[in-house]
Amino acid sequence: MEHEIFKGCQLEWIKAKTKKNHSFRYFVLGTSDPQGSPELRTVVLRGFDAGKMQFVVYTDARTAKLKSLESNPVAELLFYHGPRLTQIRVKAQLVSAAPDDELFKQQHEGAQKDYTTALPPGAVIKGIDQVSYTTENHFRKLIFQAESIEYLKLKRPNHIRLRFQKTDQGWETNYLTP
Ligand SMILES: Cc1cc2nc3c(=O)[nH]c(=O)nc-3n(C[C@H](O)[C@H](O)[C@H](O)COP(=O)(O)O)c2cc1C
Fold first, then answer.
1. Closest ligand 1 atom to 39 CA
2. Residue 169 CA, ligand 1 centroid: distance in Å
3. pLDDT band for position 2 (50/70/90)?
4. Apex 101 CA angle, 72 and 121, nearest 5
């Protein structure tokens, strides 16, 4: 059963890349700020490599999350599927945060603009129409390598809680007390 669950998770992440209303398209990315305080925010799943178990997120180089990840590259990715009462927590390591001009050019015009604000994301402004843009883009492609995955499905009579741990031999599985 655990093999099917692992494969099932991979399938949902693959679907989420293209299906706009998929429950896993938006997920919560958790990091620790340089002082060690937790930070959570919603992001879009832009890519998933099932072979490598890597997740892709796009962001602006100037965001707080990148400063946090520079000081501590460990992150947690939280996915929740409401109708199925299923939660997946992925502990991951940031392995790349590179610019990618080709990928940037493939984004539609509005999305491109988001990465070109004159002020960094989070800077105080006087009103919502007070944002100006430059020709410089701060687009970054973040790649997270999954290290361990915890799956929890609430279900009667038995909840299912499983941990998949990356090892040199593959993914080691353990059932956990829910
Ligand atoms: C629906 C939704 C999707 C979002 N997707 C992204 C995203 O893909 N990448 C991103 O950097 N921020 C995204 N954001 C904004 C983040 O939640 C966050 O506000 C921003 O990245 C600044 O976070 P930080 O200061 O912790 O770095 C999204 C917000 C919402 C509401």
1. 26
2. 35
3. confident
4. 50
Binding site membership of 132 for ligand 1 (Cβ less than 6 Å): no
In the predicted model, is pLDDT for residue 17 greater than 90? no
- Residue 48 pLDDT exceeds 90: yes
Query: Lowest-confidence range among 8-12, 14-18, 116-120?
Result: 14-18
Retrieve residue 160's tokens: 């299912």
Hey, whose CA ends up nearest to atom 6 of ligand 1?
43
Domains and CATH numbers, the chain: 2-175 (2.30.110.10)
Question: For residue 59, what are its two tokens?
Answer: 């962001």
Task: Tell whether the torsion through CA atoms of 108, 110, 113 and 115 is positive or negative.
Answer: negative
What's the token pair of residue 103? 């990928």
Nearest alpha-carbon partner for 160 in 1, 42, 48: 1
Alpha helices by DSSP H, the chain: 2-18, 64-71, 101-106, 109-114
Q: Give the model's pLDDT for residue 140.
A: 98
Structure tokens at 29: 């990315």
What sign results for the dihedral spanned by CA atoms 168, 163, 75, 9?
Answer: positive
Token pair of 144 as six digits: 């997270």
Q: Rounded to the nearest whole angstrom, what is the distance from the C-alpha of residue 72 to the centroid of ligand 1?
A: 19
